[in-house]
Amino acid sequence: MNQTYDNIPQEKFEFAQLNDTLHDKKLETKSRGYFADALIRFKKNKSSIVAAYIILFLVLFAIFAPIISPYSVYDTDTTYQKFAPFVESIANKGWGFLDGSKTLSSQSENQIKFYEGIAEETGKNPIIKIDYENPKITTTIIRGKKVQIKSYPININSYYAVGVVFKNISYEEFAKIQEFQNISGLQVLYPYTEKSSIYEGMDPAKYKDIPDNSNVWYVCSDTKGTPKLDSNGNFIPAYSTDAKKAGPAEYATYTSQRIAGDDGSYIYSWGKSGSLSVRVEYYNYYQYMQWAKTGTYHPPLYMFGTSENGTDLFCAIGAGARFSLIFALLVSVINLTIGAIYGAIQGYYGGYVDLAMDRVTDILSEVPFVVVTTLFQLHLAQRVGSVVSFLFAFVLTGWIGMAALTRKQFYRFKSQEFVYAAKTLGASDWRLMFKHIFPNSLGTIVTSCALVIPSVISSETSLTYLGIVNLKSFAGTSIGALLSEGQTAITSAPHAMLFPSLFISLLLISFNLFGNGLRDAFNPTTRGMED
Amino acid sequence: MTKYILQRILLMLMTLLIITCMCFILIRMLPLPELPIGDPRSVVIEKQREAFGYNKPYLVQFGIFLKNVFTKFNWGISDKLYFGQNVADIFVQKLPATIIVNLYSIILSIPLGIMLGIFAALKKNTWIDHTISTLTMVVISVPSFVYAFLIQYILCFKLGWFPLLMNSGTNYFSWDMFLSMVPAVLSLSFGVIAGFTRTTRAELTEVLTSEFMLLARTKGLTRRQATIRHALKNCMVVILPSIFGEFIGIMGGSLIIERIFSIPGVGALYLNSINAPDYNMFLLITVFYCVIGLLASIIVDISYGFIDPRIRMGSRK
After folding, report:
1. pTM, 2 dp
2. B269-279: average pLDDT
3. What is the CATH number of the domain that holds A316?
4. B165 touches A at CB < 8 Å
5. B53 & B183 share domain
6. What is the pLDDT of residues A94-140, one digit of tens each?
7. Per the domain annotation, does A27 fall within a domain?
8. Which residue in B164, B256, B270 is closest to A462 by CB distance?
9. Residue B279 domain-assigned (yes or no)
10. Chain A: nearest CA to B220, how far in angstroms?
């Protein structure tokens, strides 16, 4: 039987079945790949789709909020701190939101008059609502007589309620503000007031020690600031007309627009040595400051209110979220790569390699994360910056979960026929690992990525909240830092806590929903169950 | 089984030793805080530092440290935060606040969580189940400071039921103190309740569909009997170990909740020791956190063996 078949003549070949019909049919349905199949199942999961859209929206918010906002994260304001959300055009419509509203409990009629005084002088009414229905009645004894004092809870617009403030400015600035007034038509400078005319007819010794209140511009009948009203019930202005006190004549000339009712005699500054003291309406002065800095001006626009140091929360949340998202993405990419390679080696080689590498992960995974972060911050933050050392802390232990997952997948696939087939054909270890086995476990890995991101964001927020990591110098702010600032003023400015926590909750809930949806879609055991 | 436990404990001790050594060296490498000149206690601390071998090689220092800890339970002297006082004493003083708050929270939340989980599993795929599952998902995703904020704002500030912060002092069992702990306890509970609800629901739904449940019903048990006698028993195999783990974990406490409600506990001490910086205190709490984590995981593992006869048999092989 030792025949050699080197040379078989062509005519000896014949067709096996030329005239027979084939009985197996070509598949009529379209074949579906793993990913296409997962996509179809993912689309059936309504809540995950909604979550995906919310994530998209939040990501867009993070990208565009700092661009839309007229402020940057580094813009601070010394007066508008912890103020409620405010947009001028909406506030003036009185819809009850975005009006910088703040509730003050038990304000006496005198205090209400004070706000009315601000309204009359500046033309911007700070009083939104006075609750006359629920007065608080306190009885006190004045000069042996029982007197009932009523006070009311009122809602004021915190931005308008600032009213007029005293400022010490240089001569140049005085001229510049006048220039701004001429351009914009906004009244920044208000006539100066004099104590002797406010407390008209009283003994100077009595009012000597009362601190100046920039918003008292009317004649008062007592030292408590009760306004003296004329026969029509109007305030009587107490503006100074003594031109000598306005400051050096060559610097302190006032040529710009004057307030209504000014016959040209009111003075708009008060000479101090080398500078001028002025009364400026803060709302317009704020716009002047912007004009001086950037050349454009607009009224305060704080859609989410302001933070503890007067930063626009709308912009700050956007900037913090931007950092969080990029950071989380970076961390998960690095961790997935390291974890996948580590797990692949562990799972593919098994045996002693697996055992030794397992001990390493055992030890690393037992170090509490907060300790790792703290140690990295203490050691490396000075040298490489807090963000990089924070990243290291996440990378040090973050990949372990991923490695365990990959290892499990490798154990599952490495003894399957297609791997043996490839091995028989002479594929190298590396090729077997990453060309043949790894793509099979890709689904699990992609899914876990979607669940790693929210967990990274969550820990990042917690650690910045605790102040263990400070990202101020790098990202300007972070959601955690905003939350911790908001926490200190939870009773007076709940909005500073509300918006960041709303954002972070929404982000984490939707990421988790999305991740769970992905996991179910990629999980082959649930395949066909919902059909 | 004994062999397995011994093996686990030895492994745990080894891990702990390695972690402690790493942390110790990393902490000792940091520059020491300056001592106030002229304070008589500075001299004592200087002497202490010398006795602890601060200028010797790190491994020698580690040896001295271990010797002091094991023979005298001496963890060093606080050189910043509680100037001149023994670190371990301060730590022991702070422990009760953390433990009590967390204990109240798990006493409240574990039964509630398991009950909700059972309820959801029994009513599977009804609106009750969907509501519970969705809420669980939401609560698990949202970080704890968000509920703390809601509780503090609504219950403490708007309604005025509880004080905003926990009372200071050490009178832990007075009514006032209890009242001031409630917001913190509630904030801690949400996460635990959600965790137990999810585990219980997942386990129980799986057990309820298994074949022995069908057998139990066929032999004439009512659904109630079958659930209580067979299904619950089986799902406890998973739940009980996590209860043990939770009980160990309460000592660690929560950094965030302790900060929000100013609980004078271990978490607050940890943050203060970082900010001070007070490295001896920091090292003690670091080791403490490691021990808690290791203990919890080992107890969970071992209790599986005790509770589930199938696992016990498996380990004998």
Report:
1. 0.83
2. 84
3. 1.10.3720.10
4. no
5. no
6. 777 787 788 887 777 778 888 888 887 777 788 888 877 777 888 87
7. no
8. B256
9. no
10. 30
State the pLDDT confidence band at B221, using cuts at 50, 70 and 90: confident
Token code pair at residue A206: 């009595």
> Residue A471 is which amino acid?
L
Same domain assignment for residues B208 and B154: yes
Residue A325: phi and psi, rounded to 5, are -70, -45
Does B141 contact A454 at a Cβ distance shorter than 8 Å?
yes
For residues A175 and A263, state if they share a domain: yes
Nearest-by-Cβ selection for A379 from B26, B274, B289:
B26
Helices vs strands, H then E, count in chain B: 14, 0
- For residue B314, pLDDT beyond 70: no
CATH number at residue B226: 1.10.3720.10
Same domain for A296 and A391?
no
- Kindly report the backbone phi and psi dihedral angles of residue A103, in degrees, each rounded to the nearest multiple of 5, phi listed first: -95, 130
Residue A207 within any structural domain of the chain: yes
Rounded to 10°, the helix B2-28/B279-307 angle is 160
Q: How far is A415 from chain B (nearest CA, A)?
A: 24
Q: Using CA atoms, how far apart are residues B233 and B97, in angstroms rounded to an integer?
A: 35
ipTM of the complex: 0.85
pLDDT for residue B296: 85
What is the pLDDT, as a whole number, of residue A408?
85
CB-side exposure of A484: number of CA atoms within 13 Å? 19
Q: Judge: A509–B149 Cβ closer than 8 Å, yes or no.
A: no
DSSP A143: T
Q: What is the DSSP letter of A256?
A: S
Confidence at residue B112, expressed as pLDDT on a 0 to 100 scale? 92
Same structural domain, B36 and B151: no
Q: Which domain holds residue A120?
A: 89-161
**In this structure, are A321 and A417 located in the same domain?**
yes
Q: Which of A200, A235, A242, A241 is nearest to A217 (CA)?
A: A235
Q: Tell me which chain B residues have a C-beta less than 8 angstroms from the C-beta of A367.
A: 19, 22-23, 290
Residues A278 and A185 occupy one common structural domain = yes
CA proximity to A267, closest of A194, A186, A356: A194
For B266, the token pair is 């271990």
Both tokens of A446, joined, read 């992609």
Do A353 and A458 sit in the same domain of this protein?
yes
For residues A183 and A258, membership in a common domain is answered with yes
Calculate helix-pair angle for A479-488, A495-522, nearest 10 degrees: 140
A367, A490, A491: residue with CB nearest B19: A367
Domain assignment of residue A316, yes or no:
yes
Domains held by chain A: number? 3
Q: Does B164 touch chain A (CB under 8 A)?
A: yes
CA–CA dist A322, A479 (Å, integer): 10
A285 vs A253: CA distance, rounded Å: 19
Is B314 part of a structural domain of the chain? no
What gap in Å lies between CA A317 and CA A334, rounded to an integer? 25
SS3 of residue A58 by DSSP: helix
CA distance B17 to A363: 10
A186 DSSP assignment:
-
**What domain range is B21 assigned to?**
2-72
Q: Are residues A240 and A151 in the same domain?
A: no
| H or E, element range at A278 | strand A275-281
pLDDT tens, residue by residue, A145-185: 888 878 888 888 888 888 888 888 888 888 888 888 888 87
Mutation to test the A interface, candidates B149, B154, B260, most A Cβ within 10 Å:
B149
Q: Do the domain assignments include residue A178?
A: yes
